[in-house]
Design goal:
By secondary structure, this protein is mainly α. The chain has helices at 2-24, 30-66.
């Protein structure tokens, strides 16, 4: 029983601390969130295109090197 009580107290303390820390968080407003989302999507798109191009070029070099 003592183990369960200690575990319960640890969980309770953890949740209290989470609540305190969450009050300290500064959440972005709607405009900031929209801006950040657009920036992330653009960067992901650019990286996907870049990785696709590098993959295509490396594939061509590999085919030429192996004569496939």
């Amino acid at each position: 029983m003592d183990k369960i009580r200690k575990w319960y107290e640890k969980v309770r303390t953890f949740l209290k601390e989470v609540k305190i820390e969450m009050k300290k968080v500064t959440w972005p407003n709607r405009d900031d969130l929209t801006t950040y989302t657009v920036v992330v999507l653009i960067v992901v798109l650019i990286m996907a295109v870049y990785i696709g191009i590098v993959d295509r070029v490396m594939g061509l070099f590999l085919r030429l090197f192996l004569h496939i």
